[in-house]
Write a structure and sequence with these properties.
This protein has helices at residues 33-38, 47-56, 81-93, 99-107, 109-116, 120-131, 150-162, 178-188, 236-256, 301-313, 322-339, 343-355, 364-369, 373-382; strands spanning 8-16, 40-42, 45-46, 62-65, 69-77, 95-97, 168-174, 211-218, 223-231, 262-271, 277-286, 387-394. By secondary structure, the protein is an alpha+beta fold. The protein has a 5-stranded mixed sheet with strand order 8-12-9-11-10, with helices on both faces. The chain has a 4-stranded antiparallel sheet with strand order 4-5-1-7, with helices on both faces. Strands 3-2-6 form a 3-stranded antiparallel sheet. The protein is globular and about 60 Å long.
């Protein structure tokens, strides 16, 4: 896709198969697979040095292994697409495990585990553990020490990915001459290893615990995090309805805790794999003294939590106003139109379209227009039957 990016091109080699496809992977091991890619040598050069060489030539590269896909992405000079393709070929065909780097990395995991304590990553890990106690394919790092055979599992996975690059998509977005790109692709695409074997996605299934759970710990500052998970068939309209619902919910909660000295932030994500759901994450944090409103008596996290609980308990009967839905639909439309001018948006959208078979972008304005008050209410009502976990930090 050609778009103005000041002479840069942005790329993503998105391959089917993530750590969910690693045979024999045990709980808590999945989050480490991405790291093992860098514990290697690229044609004899340590991976970190190789990435440094790319940077000196104006090219960035990041490798991430998620649950169901592997992404090799970054940016490069649009006038030299050949350098980008040769670099991709090098990391796919010339990467081999660096045993010394692996030993050092694994020996230091206990220290890194201690450093993660008390962080937001640990909070997310605890919440996910409560919500999905039997789920094996967790993406967060949770182990005090790494098993000796994890590097072997990772190596087998990366070798397998490199042998079937036709099972994915190469996306290039930005300032580039079409004829130059076609010629460069014709010259170099034959260097990628392909396979006749069809990819079969592993059936990763899990059942989140139902109901409401609370987890309380001591910490440096008062905070409350609430995670909710709701099954939702991800049609294009439902995807947009979830966006609007998130905006509506944030407005209601912000009004509810306005006089408690706590601020509300709310995010959500629509998960396609392993099953279709929408997850909401609500955070209540102390407002600094300079940020208190005039009639606030100070910070009271339990009062704020009580008010949030009251809202969530009656969320199915929330009076959703037509004017609010229309205002947030307009805000969503404007936001998406701005995002579409950013290359990373298209890298994510097109990879999802090819790997997950979901397209939420085409005719997005029509899908936003189709969001109704009833659709928003349906998602809010489903929260009563979903999963809710509270993670409370007391100072």
């Amino acid at each position: 896709k050609n778009m103005p990016t000041d002479g840069r091109i942005y790329y993503n080699l998105a391959l089917n198969g993530g750590f969910g496809s690693v045979e024999g992977l045990k709980k808590g091991e999945g989050g480490y697979i991405s790291d093992y890619f860098m514990l290697s040598k690229i044609y004899g050069i340590p991976a970190e040095d190789f990435i440094g060489i790319l940077a000196s030539e104006g090219m960035s590269m990041d490798v991430h292994v998620g649950l169901n896909a592997m992404m090799v992405s970054g940016s490069a000079d649009g006038e030299d697409p050949e350098f980008m393709l040769k670099s991709l070929l090098a990391v796919m065909n010339g990467r081999r495990r660096d045993d010394e780097a692996v030993r050092y990395y694994e020996s230091a995991e206990g220290v890194r585990h201690q450093m993660r304590k008390g962080t937001s990553a640990e909070m997310v890990a605890k919440v996910n553990e409560i919500m999905c106690p039997d789920y094996t394919h967790v993406s967060y790092k949770m182990l005090e020490s790494l098993p000796a055979n994890l590097s072997e599992k990772a190596e087998k996975f990366f070798m397998n990915q490199a042998s079937k690059t036709n099972d994915g998509v190469l996306i290039i977005v930005g300032d580039i001459d079409e004829n130059l790109l076609k010629k460069t692709l014709a010259d170099h695409l034959g260097g990628f290893v392909v396979s006749d074997r069809a990819f079969r996605r592993n059936h990763v299934r899990y059942q989140p615990s139902s109901g409401w759970s609370t987890y309380t710990v001591d910490g440096p500052e008062n905070s409350v995090d609430i995670a909710m998970s709701v099954p939702l068939t991800l049609t294009s309209v439902n995807f947009m309805a979830a966006e609007v619902t998130s905006m509506i919910l944030k407005k209601i909660l912000s009004d509810a805790v306005a006089d408690t000295g706590m601020s509300v932030s709310l995010s959500h994500e629509c998960r396609i794999y392993p099953n279709e759901r929408v997850n909401f994450h609500i955070s209540l944090n102390e407002i600094s003294e300079d940020g208190f409103v005039s009639d606030s008596d100070g910070t009271d996290p339990m009062e704020a939590l009580s008010k949030v609980r009251m809202v969530l308990s009656g969320v199915g009967g929330t009076d959703v106003k037509e004017e609010d839905v229309e205002a947030f639909k307009a805000q969503l439309k404007d936001g998406l139109n701005k995002e579409m001018k950013v290359p990373f948006y298209w890298l994510n959208v097109i990879s999802r379209r090819h790997l997950a078979g979901k397209d939420f972008t085409t005719n997005h304005e029509a899908h936003i227009k189709s969001v109704t008050v009833d659709k928003v209410k349906a998602i809010l009502s489903a929260m009563n039957d979903g999963t809710r976990v509270e993670y409370i930090v007391n100072k």
